[in-house]
Amino acid sequence: MNAGDKPQHLQQELRELEDRERSLRLRELELEIEQPATDVQVEVMPKESGLVGSRLRRWRRKIVMAAKFFGLVIAIIVAVRVAAWLAGAVMVVGIAWLAYQLFFDSDD
Questions:
Q1: How far apart are CA 55 and CA 46, in angstroms?
Q2: Cα-based angle 83, 86, 92 (whole degrees, multiple of 5)
């Protein structure tokens, strides 16, 4: 090998190396194409993004939870009042029926 052959030899090796890299990358791309497509979930960010958006979402979530709690409390209060009214009505009807049986029903 003389001095003139060395640059040509290096260029030849460089071309062979580039060809091998290209063929390797081509095989990798073919493998990626042949793999079955997997379902990818894409999370779409709302228009308000960043720190302000996350604060708004956090406050919105807190308000919704507070509204649900308030609704549950109101429903329980209404249920207790209805149950108390029904219990009072049943007691009055029971006492009236007992009084009728004692005083007005005369089966001697």
A1: 13
A2: 145
Is 66 or 103 the better-scoring residue by pLDDT? 66
pLDDT of residue 95: 96
Distances in Å between the Cα of 6 and the Cα atoms of 9, 11, 14, 102 are: 5, 9, 12, 129
SS3 category, 36: coil
Residue 108 pLDDT more than 90? no
Please report, to the nearest 10 degrees, the dihedral formed by the alpha carbons of residues 13, 15, 16, 19 taken in order.
Answer: 160
Contact status, residue 70 vs residue 77, Cβ threshold 8 Å: no
Amino acid letter, residue 87:
A
- One-letter identity of residue 71: G
Question: What confidence tier does 84 reach under pLDDT thresholds 50, 70, 90?
Answer: very high
Q: Give the residue ranges of DSSP H helices in the chain.
A: 5-34, 50-99
Q: What does pTM read for this prediction?
A: 0.43
In eight-state DSSP terms, residue 3 is T
- 90 close to 97: Cβ distance less than 8 angstroms: no
